[in-house]
Amino acid sequence: MQIIKADVLGMCFGVRDALQILEKVPEPERVTIHGQLVHNETVVRDLGQRGFKMAEETLRRPLPLTDTVLVTAHGVSDKERRRLLEAGKDIIDTTCPLVKRAHEAAQKLHSQGRHVLVIGKRGHVEVQGIIEDLESFDVISCVEEVRQYPFNKLGVMCQTTSPARLVQQIRDAVAEKNPSADIRFIDTVCHPTKDHQMALDALLEQVEAVVVVGGKNSNNTRELVARCEEHGVPAFHIQSAEDINPTWFTGMEVVGLTAGTSTLDATIDEVYQAMSTRSYTSANFNVQPIEGMLTALSRPV
After folding, report:
1. 8 Å CB contact between 94 and 37
2. Running DSSP on this structure, what letter comes out for residue 244?
3. Do 61 and 106 belong to one domain?
4. Per-residue pLDDT reduced to its tens digit, 155-174
5. Quick check: 57 and 36 in contact, CB under 8 A?
6. What is residue 118's three-state secondary structure?
7. Which of 60, 98, 104, 299 has its CA 20 to 30 A from that of 249?
8. What is the domain extent for residue 209?
9. What percent of the chain has pLDDT over 90?
């Protein structure tokens, strides 16, 4: 079986930078990570083993007990940052620069007196950080949620990992349903996300199925899986080589491999080696229930 890797796959510079910052922390046990550093279960487990305290993303209201708090790559609102500082906490900031740019775009639109439409996954930690600093906003997760808004001025921006096709569809729907509104759009989908999606599109023309490696909570990884399914190509969403079921590839000659932006290089290498050797048996692997088409891990809401 031939395995073709996407030209662009795996960890983006924002995640690499965040991990490098953590490597330099001298006393991990004195630091609380304010949520998941990245949506990658392997990284989260390793950080816990090093001694870092971690607050669940949905349970961040109680103040961390440690004096130092690490803001994750997904960022936090200015409101939340002030709360931590006013409580006397020292902050280590690993917010991705492109997430900061998304925050700035939302604030710019807001300062122009616009009702801000945030294209993204409702409840996602990045989206939550953006809207906490806004007074007038709506979060739009799909085209069906677009409506006529009672505002003369609208501003549209995106969660950094939003699929470009969805952004365009929502933009068109907003314009159609609000023909008299003054609408300004700022494209805040990050370049690594776009590059991953474009590389996958090229890969889909060459393969019979795609293995997508990434955390089960990773929005950009799930979008890669969805992109495969939309093109009618089976997608197997796994977190590590241990999740592979060798029976998936029966009768296949060419299989693709891609990975989300928070997936470690070592994890991709392990998956590639496991797929290449094919010397394993299904008894060696922890196979998760299949959902949708051939997605190997269930998608959380």
Report:
1. yes
2. -
3. no
4. 999 999 998 889 999 999 99
5. yes
6. strand
7. 299
8. 2-9+192-284
9. 77
